[in-house]
Design a protein that fits this description.
Elements: H1 8-14, E1 20-21, E2 24-25, H2 36-45, E3 49-55, E4 58-59, E5 70-76, E6 79-85
Parallel strand pairs: 3-5
Antiparallel strand pairs: 1-2, 3-4, 5-6
Length: 86
């Protein structure tokens, strides 16, 4: 678990990777390998709000609320490496 400034919220959403959304279960396989632009577009087309939580290993500032219509992305070298609902 990462700790320190900017990491506190990362752990809070990590436990909800299998949370159901309005469009069904969001899994990494729906988005892995897509560019961030492609993943954002796909999420919006499916009625979801995209959010980047990590870029190239650096966690971004997050809010703590869970939203069943949001999909979170971890991005490395411009490609989505993980996605989950919340």
């Amino acid at each position: 678990m990462k700790e320190g400034p900017g990491f506190a919220n990362t752990c809070a959403v990590a436990d909800y990777k299998k949370q159901k959304t309005m469009k069904g279960l969001v899994t990494s396989s729906h988005y892995e390998g897509l560019t961030l632009e492609q993943a954002n577009e796909k999420a919006r087309l499916n009625g979801l709000t995209p959010r980047v939580v990590e870029i190239d290993g650096k966690s971004l500032m997050l809010t703590m609320e869970l939203m069943n219509h949001r999909v979170n992305f971890r991005v490395r070298n411009g490609l989505v490496i993980e996605a989950w609902a919340g």
